[in-house]
Recover the amino acids of this structure.
């Protein structure tokens, strides 16, 4: 019954390209980022190529063994630079495969999720390198304060350090996003494509006033 309902909605598990486009549309409707959509395309594309090489033409026929074999194949693949995929890349791609089958299960296209029990490759999480106050002070003092470029560079550094902005978020800032009077900064299209407001105080605010 569920697969019939899926067929009525036009989602044919034998048409891999159409399934991928349906997944992409679903992500777009849920306002997922372009990076998330590209992630879905890359992961699903690799899986579909793997299944075709093994003559699997229907996503309802995919088994746990197929997914395990695909995960093992990722360990042997190489990037465009000729290097093996890093553990983080393998996790990234396999998480995309899990997302695909969650989508198919939710739509009633498949009755079983073959990626449900997939164990993602693990790595040892290392602490991120951070700078101390003295290192931050030397970094802020490096740009030449007597040139427009130096003043601009210092303002950017102070903003990144003082507000915790991501580099991409800083690149998208506009003058209209800065409110020195209220001491706030409007961040557009941040992580998860969400907007937010962050405090803009102290040295970061002073650097922008110059």
């Amino acid at each position: 019954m569920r697969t019939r309902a899926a067929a009525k909605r036009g989602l044919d598990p034998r048409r891999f390209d159409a399934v991928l486009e349906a997944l992409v549309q679903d992500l777009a409707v849920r306002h997922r980022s372009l990076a998330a959509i590209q992630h879905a395309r890359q992961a699903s594309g690799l899986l579909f190529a793997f299944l075709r090489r093994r003559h699997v033409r229907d996503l309802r026929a995919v088994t746990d063994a197929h997914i395990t074999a695909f995960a093992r194949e990722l360990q042997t693949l190489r990037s465009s630079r000729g290097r093996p995929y890093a553990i983080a890349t393998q996790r990234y791609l396999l998480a995309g495969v899990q997302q695909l089958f969650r989508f198919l299960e939710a739509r009633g296209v498949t009755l079983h999720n073959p990626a449900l029990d997939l164990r993602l490759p693990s790595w040892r999480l290392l602490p991120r390198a951070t700078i101390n106050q003295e290192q931050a002070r030397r970094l802020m003092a490096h740009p030449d304060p007597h040139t427009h470029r130096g003043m601009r560079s210092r303002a950017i550094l102070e903003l990144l350090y003082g507000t915790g902005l991501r580099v991409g978020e800083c690149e998208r800032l506009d003058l209209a996003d800065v409110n020195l009077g209220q001491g706030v900064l409007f961040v557009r299209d941040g992580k998860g494509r969400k907007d937010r407001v962050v405090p803009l105080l102290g040295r970061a605010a002073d650097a922008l006033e110059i």
About this structure: The mean pLDDT is 85. Strands lie at 178-179, 184-187, 196-199.
